[in-house]
């Protein structure tokens, strides 16, 4: 079992397979970065898998593949198959913007993927295009449909932004409710890579908007998801990811591995260590020791706040995988 310095059990590894992306979401990557990490500096799938095995052997139960946009990296289905066949009962999932999902869904399912979280910030062509800075909506909706058809379990992620998509939160909920997909609204997390004008909604503001159309009750927090669930009277459950809440980090069970082999104890903090050398030297003991050291240094909580004393993260979400 993996335990951090605050006694939190860590059993969830998020693996970013690329920092590159085909969208330029205002809250994440509004401009193309000045330079990408060169391809040769990335860990191969085999090397990433070597580390994932170390993690699983030490107690990781849930692996999420993310990015950048993970579907941009060639051969992803082979990587998924490696993980799926290493441990049958692993909770293996993928987070994607959905743009390339239409052609990838069947391959992903066949490789052993069970569930997928797709970002959907708007149901209006022009708003989706404004957020992603690309005409994306039709392809994303097609991708979601294809994933559904092949039997992948779907969740939808939506980042509510002031003056941009905050008038659509109920429409998005209705769309997801009709399709049977849980939607999770994510509070915008301030970071120095986002567009200067980006401003998110707090969980309370999101709830106020939904309250105008639906009654709902806060649910008990259970399981490994970062989402706080709310249940409508008809039983539909939506979630809000509330990183500005004081107690959000108390149940943190997550660590992150970037595509270039940096193991990050917290989405918010700078401190991190590379496992690249150890993995490439096939020094499993050293890789396991670095994992434990990173966990021992996992911070108690982030310093995002809705007050003036909020600290902005310099970590790019497209690098850490969100
Ligand atoms: N601050 C913070 N935000 C997180 C953390 N984990 C997830 N999030 C946010 O929630 C978003 C959605 O996460 P997903 O990639 O869908 O994964 P998930 O919510 O763990 O997925 P489920 O396993 O389906 O619940 C992330 O991209 C982040 O923006 C975390 O540890 N800290
Ligand atoms: C970094 S993306 C990577 C996976 C994929 N490209 C996607 O967009 O789903 C993972 C998640 O992070 C969320 N995200 C990115 N930047 C964020 C921010 N500043 N605040 C909150 N969520 C953010 C996205 O909405 C997405 O759901
Ligand atoms: S949120 Fe995802 S889709 Fe949007 S720019 Fe970031 S990595 Fe790309
Ligand atoms: S901000 Fe850091 S400590 Fe808090 S939940 Fe996210 S990863 Fe965990």
TrEMBL record:
Entries under InterPro entries matching the protein: Aldolase_TIM, Elp3/MiaA/NifB-like_rSAM, MoaA, MoaA-like, MoaA_NifB_PqqE_Fe-S-bd_CS, MoaA_twitch, MoCo_biosynth_MoaA/MoaC, rSAM
EC number: 4.1.99.22
Entry keywords, A to Z: 4Fe-4S, GTP-binding, Iron, Iron-sulfur, Lyase, Metal-binding, Molybdenum cofactor biosynthesis, Nucleotide-binding, S-adenosyl-L-methionine
GO molecular function annotation: 4 iron, 4 sulfur cluster binding; cyclic pyranopterin monophosphate synthase activity; GTP 3',8'-cyclase activity; GTP binding; metal ion binding; S-adenosyl-L-methionine binding
Biological processes per GO annotation: Mo-molybdopterin cofactor biosynthetic process
Keyword Nucleotide-binding: yes
Transmembrane segments: none
Presence of keyword Iron: yes
Pathway listed: Cofactor biosynthesis; molybdopterin biosynthesis
CDD domains reported for this sequence: Radical_SAM, Twitch_MoaA
Quaternary structure and interacting proteins, as annotated: Monomer and homodimer.
Name the record gives this protein: GTP 3',8-cyclase
């Amino acid at each position: 079992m993996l335990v951090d310095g605050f006694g939190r059990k860590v059993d969830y590894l998020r693996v970013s397979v690329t920092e590159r992306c085909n969208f330029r979401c205002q809250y994440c990557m509004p401009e193309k970065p000045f330079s990408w990490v060169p391809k040769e500096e990335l860990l191969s799938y085999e090397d990433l898998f070597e580390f994932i095995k170390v993690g699983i052997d030490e107690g990781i139960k849930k692996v999420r593949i993310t990015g950048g946009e993970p579907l941009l990296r060639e051969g992803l289905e082979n990587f998924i198959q490696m993980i799926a066949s290493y441990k049958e009962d692993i909770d293996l999932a993928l987070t994607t913007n959905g743009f390339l999902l239409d052609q990838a869904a069947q391959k992903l399912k066949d490789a052993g993927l069970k569930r997928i979280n797709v970002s959907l910030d708007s149901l209006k062509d022009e708003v989706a295009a404004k957020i992603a800075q690309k005409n994306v909506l039709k392809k994303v909706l097609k991708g979601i449909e294809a994933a559904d058809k092949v039997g992948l379990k779907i969740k939808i992620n939506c980042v509510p932004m002031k003056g941009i998509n905050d008038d659509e939160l109920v429409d998005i909920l209705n769309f997801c409710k009709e399709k049977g997909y849980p939607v999770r609204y994510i509070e915008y997390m301030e970071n120095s890579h986002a567009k200067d004008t980006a401003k998110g909604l707090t969980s309370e503001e999101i709830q106020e908007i939904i309250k105008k159309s639906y009654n709902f009750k806060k649910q008990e927090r259970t399981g490994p998801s970062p989402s706080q669930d709310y249940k409508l009277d008809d039983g539909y459950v939506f979630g809000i990811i509330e990183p500005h809440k004081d107690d959000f980090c108390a149940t943190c069970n997550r660590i992150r591995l970037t595509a270039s082999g940096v193991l990050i104890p917290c989405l918010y903090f700078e401190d991190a260590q590379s496992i690249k050398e150890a993995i490439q030297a096939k020094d499993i003991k050293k890789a396991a020791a670095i994992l434990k050291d990173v966990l021992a240094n996992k911070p108690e909580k982030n310093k995002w706040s809705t007050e003036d004393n909020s600290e902005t993260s310099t970590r790019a979400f497209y690098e850490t995988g969100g």
